[in-house]
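Annex B. Sample input.
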Amino acid sequence: MRIVIAEDDPLLREGLALLLRAEALDVVATAPDAAGFLDAVAAHEPDVAIVDVRMPPTHTDEGIRAAVEARRTRPGLAVLVLSAYVEQAFATDLLVHGSARLGYLLKERVGRVQEFLTALHRVAGGGTAIDPEVVAQLLTRRRPDNRLDRLSPRERDVLALMAEGLGNTAIAERLVVTGGAVHKHIRSIFAKLDLQPADGTDRRVAAVLRYLEST
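Annex B, continued. Sample output.
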């Protein structure tokens, strides 16, 4: 796994590089800003990019815009975005462009090494990894009359884990239920959120988007 890191904080940038190299992962380049990151992606053709949301010069959304551009020029690039705190617009912007090979984690998750590495490998393998705290905070911001209000408590639990990027088997293990029960809950979620089968529509991604956009 070839990795590029874009982070303006030198301590975090070098700390991430040391951590990943200690895990026998190939960090091919690091960059302190968006321009350097895009140059590194072009030069090294990495499999995964770890990108800070806020970078110089304005410290607003340079990281997100650079990640979108990197995926445009290198289709299939996995991107794990790091943020100091929950930023709803950035989380939804990422998913709007497709959920495969994408992750959004709070920086504090890096200190929980195994959780961070699990998320990194999930994203590199084609999955999605959304920080549980992001999911929890978005849940608390729901508007009245939201279609999510139709869901039962257990269905909300299942949808929250779907938003973290977990598959059915992992959800069943987390909730200590059968895979059949998870499948039944997901079908019910699709029905209650008015997500009907349609060619070209990934109802699982659509459910997560509805979940995030409802805040």
